Amino acid sequence: MTADRWARVPSSDAEREKIWFKPHSFARDVWLRFTRKPAAIAGLAAAALLIFFAIAGPMFTPYDYDKQALSLANIPPVFDTAREPSSGRLFYVTGSMKVIESDANGNIVGQLAKIEDDFISMRVSFEDSEGGRVYLDYSKNPAILADAEGEPLPAGPRLWNRSYILGTDHLGRDILTRLMYGTRISLTVAFIAATVNMVIGILYGGISAYLGGRADAVMMRIVDIISTIPLTLYVILIKVTLSNGLSGIIIALSSVYWVNMARVVRGQVLSLRQQEFVLAARTIGSSSRAILFRHLIPNSMGPILVTMMMLIPSAIFMEAFMSFIGIGIAPPMASLGTMCNDANEMFRANPYQLFLPALVICLIMFAFNFVGDGLRDALDPKLKK
């Protein structure tokens, strides 16, 4: 055997990289698998934007969620105008036959003051910002703006509402500002309720599975009894006994939604309590508390986090539903559910008032559902590649 036989085999960097890689931590491994899911990344980005919208958004708006301007009620985000030929001023007629003056950029100047209502000719005269007169002919359907001779004013441009980007509601409140506060309320309720449900579910399900035997049977029968009645009915019954407000909704949601978490934790603990690492912990004399909270629960955090993430959209929908039927957030506090309720009667005339809060609810639910699905796949060891 010659010395040449023991020479180092030449290899390139690319060939060495094929057989060697830097080891990853479990969290980094989960993140890498999570980032391979485009829907999960989109959901995470949407959730981050919604959280920023809810927390930082009100800092950039000049309006309050309860500030009313009845003279500027029901102005849509985009509106058609009529032009006054001599002065070039632009006017918009609302559904309640109020005349709103706007500049060429879409900024609202204000509502025109009514001067006279001629019931015979079915015309109302208004005074504009420069003292001129504009006439509203409501003998036509829809009503049109006209000059003193009754000739219709020429059509002006379609303008984006610069003063109220998403329009105003039936009380003249800024819809964008109310959406910000409503999203904040929904996310606050969802995160607090989901956290409380996670804590209760972990404690209840973990203790039940670890004790086993008769204790487990009794504790899980309680869960079965609670589950026999729809959780929505439970929440409504609990909520009607409490005062309207944020704390009442959180208490109602935290009272019963933990049963799903308890079942998930129980199943995970039952599958892990006979594993070798648990037997080793018992051998060295670890207490039951240490085994449960230092070994079993941490090794069950994957399904727990996924279940918690799925609880968030459920809590948001339930909060919006209760506010919609009138037992949630009390007016004038803004909530996505109360905004839908306020817009329900105005749906035919102003559909945007219902569409916008419903769209935000859908975006929140889709975002957290996508994140939950991505976490479920990323935490599943069977999908590890």
Task: Characterise the protein shown here.
The protein is α+β, with helices and mostly antiparallel strands and 385 residues long. The protein has 2 domains: 80-160, no CATH class; 175-383, MetI-like (MetI-like fold). Helices cover 52% and strands 11% of the residues. It contains 13 helices and 9 strands. The strands form 2 sheets. It has a 5-stranded antiparallel sheet with strand order 4-3-2-1-9, with no helix packed on it. The chain has a 4-stranded antiparallel sheet with strand order 5-6-7-8, with no helix packed on it. Strand 3 (99-102) and strand 4 form a beta hairpin. Helix 11 (301-324) packs parallel to helix 12 (336-344). The longest helix has 37 residues, at 175-211. It is elongated. The chain starts with 12 loop residues before the first helix and ends in a 6-residue tail after the last helix.
